[in-house]
Structure formats: structure tokens, C-alpha cells
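Quick sanity check, Helitron helicase-like domain-containing protein:
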Amino acid sequence: MFCTVSNAKKTQRADLSRSTSKARKLRNSRSERTEEQIQQQNTDARVRMTRLHQEEPEDTRDERNEVRRLEQRQSRRFTVNRRRTNDQQRQQVHRAFISDSFLRLAFQYEPDIEYYAHSKVVIGAMDKECPHCHALKFKNEPAGMCCASGKVQLPEIETPPEPLNGLLIGTDPDSNVFLKSILRFNSCFQMTSFGATEIVRNTNANGQQFNSTFKIRGQVYHKMGSLLPMPNEPHKFLQIYFMGGEDSGSALANRVNARCNYNNLDSLYARRIVSELDAL
């Protein structure tokens, strides 16, 4: 039994080898043909097919033609049904697009529709000025949305005192330092803080931690501390405003050091900015 199976496998390998060799020879033979030989072989093939069709019995020819007609009919029916289905879906999406509601329209996205050209998407430039409060608005915004047509009058925002104004608008030499770390400079003068028992931070690709959103889970309490720190504790937040010294100069230096140390501002430029803002 083992010899029979082994011989059968050898026979299969021999047949496969002969088939592969024959296919290789056929490819080589076809690649070596000239253009005239190719045209002559195509002509001979057409003549052979014509002769076969002529010699084919009439009932066989009719059966073959009938099968071909059925296949073509099924192919056309499939194509028509698919086109009809696509047209129906496209019309449905288009009707939803031109309607007042865009609800769940993204789940029926159709690449052939120019969504960016819809009137509800193209809002134009914000170049319409309110005649009462001079607010800039878009074309289709309600007329009284900003100030209720002059009924609400807000006082004008006063220009900040110097050197804060120069730091904000970029005219101060230290403006770049201030704007780059404006959150830290703002924290230097805050009187309270928001603490939590557990802080969850995200980490970006550079390994830096950040908070994309601020979420509070649990209950918020307002805790009031003392105006002076506990022994061996540094001054923080509101306590910094009650720091003293031997004179006004030393008191200012103590406050600047406390503000900068707590917010990791250690450059001379940062300390000069904090000192100038503390003197306001």
C-alpha cells in the first residue's frame, strides 16, 4: 500500500513537472512570434470558429443563443436594479440635505454632493456691523442678537494700565516672555485655587501632561484658610498679599519670590515682569 501511494505521488509530481515545462515552452513560443504570425493565427482562429458555428446543429445553436440572451437579460436587470438603488439613495440623501434638518446626515454621506456649498454652511464673512453697539456679525445673524437693538448698553472696556497694556499688545520689550507664559503670570496673582483629591491628566506624543477638558466628579467645597501660613509653610495665593518685610522694598521682593517660586518662573525677565505687575 505504501509503494502504491508513493508511486502515485511520483506520478503526480511528474505530471506537474511536464505541465509546467509545457506551459513554459508555450510562453516562450508565443513571445518569439512575429506580428505577421500573430495576425495569421488570429485569422485562422476566426476561420475555425466560423466553420464550427456553421457545422453546429441548429438546435444546439438555438440553445446556445438562448442561454446567451438569458445571461445578457440578467446582467442588464442587475445593472438597472443597482443603478436604481443608487439613484434612490442619492435622492434620499439630497432631500435630507436640502431640508431644514441635518440630523444624522453624516451617516448618509454622499461624495457627489457639494456639502460645502449649502446655504446653511456658507455663512460668509463677519463683516456686518451693528449700528448701535458696532459689533461685527455674520450676514444672517438676527439684528438684535448682540445688544437688543441698542437696549443693552455695555460700558467700554478700559485700556489696561502700563506696563500690562504694553505686555499684552506687544510694545513692551518683555512682551514675548509674558505672552508665552501668560497662564503662569496670571496664576502669580490669583487669590484662591481649585484643589482635588485625584487629578487625571492626559499625555501627548511628547510625553507632556495636559488637561484637554476640566471635569468635576463629586462635590465642590469652599474652604477658607488662614491669612497667614502655618509654621514652616510658604505663603500661597491670598497669603502673599499679606507678606511684609523690613521695608517696602524687602516686602516687594518677598512677594515676587513667593509668586515666582510657586509658579516655576525663575528667569530674570519673569521676575522683572512680576515685580512691575505687583507694583500696580
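Posting the structure with no commentary besides this: The CA atoms of residues 156 and 232 lie 46 Å apart.
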